[in-house]
TrEMBL record:
Residues 209-454 form the GOST seven transmembrane domain. This is GOST seven transmembrane domain-containing protein. It is found in: Membrane. It comes from the Eukaryota.
């Protein structure tokens, strides 16, 4: 049954990869037969949401200039079935607006429920035309929101929206929606694409700073690698198993940062996110996080330091690591592969909870094991190992406290930013976790760096037995002392009260 479960879990990941390969999008938002969904009294297709930085208008160049920001509509076609084409329709709208202008969309009569489409009551007030969407000019951004329309004629099956580019002259979170208010337009779909561009490339605004960040992180890992590998090569005869594990983590970190940088760089250049590069970046990152947690857990248990093996716990440790890898891989694939819009779906919570639960279990097990290992080292008076474990425990405790604090801030940030108005600062949240894990890795590297004294921190049968004997001599009296004392009466005989004197001697010796 165990091998069936492992095959099933692997199959789920493989199927997810294939699905994501087929649904990969880009900063070029593709619409392949997207159906309109009922929202209130309107029918809506969400065309995308991205943060875009403004560009200075340049009258001598086209809107598609490399230094300009724009949203371009290309080959947008609305299509309806032949059996529903025997009437002309109200307009189908494409609306583009900045998030600050969201109140300019929709309205209500007499303070009632807010509606996107013009109702009969609002039409009587003369504020809109029934059957069309309600929108008002922006008070802060003249000429916005942008609204474009197309209508079906009788017997017409498809209608095209004119291709156009919209220059972006104000930095903000922009949204594209396709909306119609015609209940009789059943099974209508939209096809085509919109292209979103920032001044520096096609990366969405929230992702743009991450490209430079991963470039700096790649450099940081290279510098750490140079230090570590030079020490490793210099003292390779003294290397212990724990240092081999740290070498693996550093290598995985270097590969992860490099792949993330190339992923963002290619996305920024072409507007199409490279699925293969993204999958490799996600996988290397997930393997690194899994190995890191397993290494910390094994060190906390004293593996290679106070015990040669994990004994019966090996299978449980590997099971926890495998489960964490699968849960994290699925979460990262869903979150990154094919992700374009700056909105994250509510479905993400479904994948986040298992990873959060497993992380909490890791932390609990690590600190429980650390407590037992510290007590054992203190009882055996292994002072060198005890010192390094205390420093390791302090570093872990600080990392956990900082993590909890940052998690609370992240929850506050996202709960108070419903419309992604603080999208320019959103990149700091994933960047912080990378910096924190890198900092902890640097501390571990400084504590267990390869040196000529590395073997003093490794498990040794002779050393452990010697320390155990020394500990016992501190607890029990030496067996030589009573023997020497008992021999004294043979050299110097006593006069009277032999039994009393001997009794007093015994009492003094056992006191």
């Amino acid at each position: 049954m165990r091998w069936l479960n492992s095959i099933g879990a692997s199959g789920v990941v493989c199927l997810l990869w294939l699905w994501l390969l087929q649904t990969t999008e880009a900063s070029v938002h593709d619409y392949s037969g997207e159906k309109f969904a009922s929202k209130g009294n309107a029918f809506v297709v969400h065309g995308g949401s991205e943060g875009i930085y403004s560009s200075v208008p340049n009258l001598t160049e086209s809107p598609s200039s490399n230094t300009d920001s724009f949203i371009r509509f290309e080959k947008i076609v609305f299509r309806r079935p032949k059996e529903f084409s025997n009437f002309s329709s109200h307009p189908i709208h494409a609306i583009v607006f900045e998030v600050d202008d969201r109140e300019a969309i929709g309205g209500s009569a007499y303070g009632g429920q807010r509606a996107v489409c013009c109702t009969a009551d609002l039409a009587k007030l003369g504020v809109c035309t029934q059957g069309q969407i309600i929108h008002r000019p922006s008070a802060n951004n003249p000429g916005w929101p942008k609204v474009f329309s197309a209508s079906f004629s009788i017997d017409e099956v498809d209608v095209a929206l004119q291709s156009r580019s919209i220059p972006i002259t104000k930095t903000g979170m922009y949204n594209v929606y396709f909306i119609h208010c015609e209940p009789n337009l059943k099974e209508i779909t939209v096809e085509g694409k919109t292209i979103w561009k920032n001044p520096t490339g096609y990366l969405p605004g929230r992702m743009a700073p991450l490209m430079n960040f991963y470039g700096f992180m790649s450099l940081a890992f290279v510098l750490l690698g140079i230090f570590w590998f030079s020490q490793y090569a210099r003292f390779w005869r003294e290397v212990i198993p724990l240092q081999n594990c740290i070498t693996l983590v550093i290598t995985l970190g270097m590969l992860e940062m490099a792949f993330w940088y190339f992923d963002y760089a290619e996305f920024n250049e072409t507007g199409v996110r490279p699925t293969g590069t993204t999958v490799w970046a996600v996988t290397f990152g997930t393997v690194k996080r899994t190995v890191s947690r397993l290494v910390i857990l094994m060190v906390s248990m004293g593996y290679g330091v106070v015990k040669p093996t994990l004994g019966g716990l090996t299978s449980k440790v590997l099971l926890l690591g495998g489960t964490f890898f699968l849960a994290s891989e699925v979460l990262e694939l869903v979150e990154n592969v094919g992700a374009v819009s700056d909105f994250s779906g509510k479905a993400r919570l479904f994948f986040v909870l298992p990873v959060a639960f497993l992380d909490a279990f890791f932390i609990l097990w690590i600190f429980t094991s650390l407590s037992a290992t510290l007590n054992k080292l203190q009882a055996r008076r292994l002072l060198a190992k005890l010192d390094i474990y205390r420093k390791f425990t302090n570093a872990l405790a600080i990392a956990v406290i900082v993590s909890v604090g940052w998690t609370c801030y992240e929850l506050y940030f996202k709960s108070t930013d419903v419309y992604n108005e603080r999208w320019q600062k959103a990149w700091i949240i994933p960047a912080f976790w990378q910096v924190l894990s890198f900092s902890l890795l640097c501390i571990i590297c400084s504590l267990w760096a390869p040196s000529q004294n590395s073997m003093r921190y490794a498990y040794s049968d002779d050393g452990e037995e010697f320390d155990k004997d020394v500990t016992l001599t501190l607890i029990k009296p030496s067996p030589l002392l009573p023997k020497d004392v008992r021999s004294q009466p043979e050299v110097r005989p006593t006069l009277d009260n032999n039994e009393l004197s001997n009794g007093d001697d015994v009492e003094d010796k056992t006191a």
